[in-house]
Amino acid sequence: MNSFTFTKLGRTLLLVVAVFAFSVSAKDGYFSVKYLTPLKSPVDWGGVGLEYGWFAGDAVFLGVDGLFGYDDKSGGLDLGAGFSFGYALKLPERLRIITGVSAGFWHSENSSSTGDYGSVNRASSHVNTTDFIGPFIKVQWYFVEIMYRGLLGFYDAGATAGGGSKSEVTVKDDGFDYNQHQFLVGFYF
To answer: Which segments of the chain are extended strands (E)?
Structure first.
């Protein structure tokens, strides 16, 4: 009985974040729904992000967000959650620029393979990243929000080629990850 699927996990995460967002009361808070663009994402279609943010005083920004994306065809997974702290600059015409830093846990996976198990020309590769902190900038105008976040953490990559009667070649690499980018667009209420 395998009842766990990424679809159920995604729906559960969306429900938890939505309940949290509506249960937190803040005078100057907002709830946003964002689309994680496929730019630098292992998921072909991107992903979905939710955030609850509020302002303490005139300039301090606090936020809690989560995102999720999964694609069975490409083998891509992108998920994470974090807490954001920053400075909000209010400009005329309901324009607001927010800069700061996010801390949390973001994980992405990308794997691919060609050939079948018994094939001589078989190849597979994977790239996994786990990030913990990163700066962000977001622009809000009326009800539209655009956000960029660059994440820092670690990566693990590997590739295998060959098989069958030929020898198999495996290459592995891991280290510091500074090349994980999130570009999100959406609406806030």
So the answer is: 29-36, 47-56, 60-71, 76-91, 95-114, 122-141, 144-162, 169-188
Phi, psi of 51, rounded to the nearest 5 degrees: -145, 145
Helix (H/G/I), strand (E/B), else coil: 18: helix
Name the pTM for this structure: 0.77
pLDDT > 90 in the chain, percent: 45
Smallest CA-to-CA distance from 75 within 49, 109, 28, 115 is with 109
- In the block, which residue shows the tokens 């510091």? 176
Q: Which domains, ranges and CATH numbers included, belong to the chain? A: 6-188 (2.40.160.20)
Question: Where do runs of H (alpha helix) occur along the chain?
Answer: 6-23
State how far the Cα of 33 lies from the Cα of 51, in Å rounded to an integer: 7
pLDDT in tens, 3-28: 456 666 666 666 666 555 554 544 57
The CA distances from residue 42 to 94, 108, 111, in Å, are 34, 7, 9
Length of the chain: 189
